[in-house]
Give the backbone structure.
Amino acid sequence: MFTRLRSDIQCILDRDPAARSSWEALTCYPGLHALVLHRRAHWCWQHGFKWLGRFISHLSRWLTGIEIHPAAVIGERVFFDHAMGVVVGETAEIGDGCTIYQGVTLGGTSLYKGTKRHPTLGKDVVVSAGAKVLGGFLVGDGAKIGSNAVVIKPVPAGATAVGIPARIIPSKTGESPDVAAPESKFSAYGITQEVDPLSQAMRGLIDNASSQEHQIALLWQAIEKLSANPAATDCVPDDAARKEHFEAAKLNQMVGK
């Protein structure tokens, strides 16, 4: 028990620069208190003391602002950061090393008892503030859920999900840095450099349009050079066709490149 508690405290110190000491983490972090109480509630639930498990869960919600059903399965080194308003449903499973921020809901979309209604988070998943993960599907290892995203379908390992409903951005290598390189730095709130698929698409269109304008300008310049008769340049509509006016850098800056 104390080994697991030390591991929980250490993960707080590793992921939250505001935590100054183990004593502060032990006494002032409601996410840690919710985990400790949940383990008691989960033990009661597994051993047939259903009401007692629910009562401990209710007490934990009142004390910490974090609601975790006693039947939920939570792995090691899970960090509920701030975590006010977090809801974890009955059949939810949270893998080792996950980080969950405030306002997150791991909810279900089915009303049938005895079924897998809530999501399963793999290892090292980051679920950012306000995100809703709804349904009995898998969020793969190292995945990241953006703030306020509404996820209603599986997320592959290492991918990022953003938007309402969430759009999936695959990782470049098929795995996130957290999976491929455990020594890499923790990504607070799941922030990455490329998180918006619409911005990525816009940047691609801008770059393509800029490239096409450059090629057109080069073609007109080549026509002028190849023409032996200066009068032949009359076929060129005007000087604008020979120069590039597409402001790709400015447009890329507007979409966040």
